[in-house]
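User: I'll paste a sequence; please echo it back and then give the predicted structure.

Assistant: Echoing your sequence first, then the prediction.
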Amino acid sequence: MDSAQLSTPEAKLADAKKQLNFPRIVVICGSTRFMAEMAEAELRETIARPAKIVVKPGCDMKSSHDLWSDPVEAQALQIRLDELHRSKIVLADEVLVVGDYIGDSTRAEIAYARSLGKPVRFTHPEIDPGA
């Protein structure tokens, strides 16, 4: 692929992953109420053949924690985490939506992934908003 074809950062990233012979990267999306299911999906995707690199939400802000006990700090943190998760979607080769419910945030993540041309899979395909 010549440099003229690598016109976007996303195309450059995809080319670099190909040159490095990276495993596919899957990002797990969904409501944080499904954190246990996300951990199970991470395990299954990691040990699958071929194995995948898995990224998922790093924390559950619906559970209490000192790091987001202040409402103002929690709101700023949520914005940063949303931006971080969008970066994970850009990094990933595919998206796996976990759980049997899709809220506004997950719906926006699915739309974003699809706008980037990322394949989206569901643990519960019947909830696919694009179906």
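The first strand starts at residue 25 and ends at 29. The two ends are 34 Å apart (CA to CA).
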